[in-house]
Specification:
The protein is of the alpha/beta class. It contains twelve helices and seven strands.
């Protein structure tokens, strides 16, 4: 139901650094519990295409609680993972305790002390649109080896069936009509094309390649509402408005006796090489 965080690209990175650093701190536990991980088939495909090995070094930007990190960590890759939220970084450290080659740092890309030419890949999972392009592109290029890769992972906005959407839409029209949106697979493919075009337009990377995988996840009512509460458009709502919205959503779901809610969405990646022109 919510707009995917990547949709309003310019909107999120236009916020000041202090606000961006702490945006998810209050919901870090919920984010860790409800946000889906990235499918291993997607991560394995990325590793195959980028030819990453146990000798490779990855810089991950905005790792959150480790939704993507946990997919790469068992492959024995060395990772430096930047996460500006203290709360999220602590959860990520706990999630990655079994992997000594994973180094979680509580800092932002802007504040991180650049390690020039060290990394085989720069990774960002649902985080690239939070970074000012005048920082993210040049600093990533500087951090990469001459033929290094940019890897962008995306979990698009999860949507229930259209039938359920229509029922819930009655509540949204009362409390938050701007949050009522239903994305078809074609809509999400178009969004992914826009995201890839931005990489091309940067002129910092070339040979952009993208693939996507249709995913389905089943949530309990509690966890579905928990998931929605981790999305930025909901975090922006005034507290009373948010309470009323979720109370009525719960009522609708309870009245119709939904034991589980199946949502579908695309998991996708863009990979690109450092431009030969740089």
């Amino acid at each position: 139901m919510a707009n995917s965080d990547p949709i309003k690209l310019e909107y999120w990175y236009s916020r000041d650094l202090a606000q961006r650093k702490n945006w998810y701190s209050a919901v870090a536990e919920n984010y860790n519990k409800a946000r889906p991980l990235y499918p291993q088939e997607l991560i394995n495909r990325v590793v195959e295409l980028t030819k990453l090995t146990s000798d490779s070094n990855i810089l991950e930007i905005g790792c959150g609680s480790g939704q993507a990190t946990r997919g790469f960590a068992p492959l024995d890759l060395s990772m430096v993972c930047l996460e500006p939220s203290f709360e999220a970084s602590e959860i990520a450290k706990e999630n990655c305790l079994a992997y000594p080659k994973i180094d979680i740092k509580n800092t932002s890309l802007e504040e991180w002390e650049l390690e020039t030419g060290k990394f085989d890949a720069v990774l960002a999972a649902n985080a690239w649109h939070w970074l000012p392009p005048e920082v993210s592109y040049p600093k990533s290029v500087q951090a990469l080896k001459p033929e290094g890769y940019l890897i962008l992972l995306w979990n698009m906005s999860p949507h229930p069936s259209y039938e359920l959407y229509q029922k819930l839409d009655q509540v949204y029209q009362i409390h938050a009509p701007h949050l009522s949106r239903y994305e078809t697979p074609e809509d999400q493919e178009n969004i992914l094309k826009q995201l890839g075009q931005k990489v091309i337009d940067s002129e910092c990377f070339s040979n952009v390649h993208s693939e996507h995988f249709l995913q389905e996840i089943s949530y309990s009512i509690d966890n579905y509402l928990l998931l929605l509460q981790t999305f930025s458009p909901y975090l922006e709502l005034p507290l009373e408005q948010r309470k009323n919205l979720f109370s009525d959503l719960r009522n609708i779901l309870g009245q119709d006796c939904y034991s589980s809610i199946v949502v579908s969405y695309y998991s996708a990646f863009h990979i690109a090489r450092v431009s030969e022109l740089l």
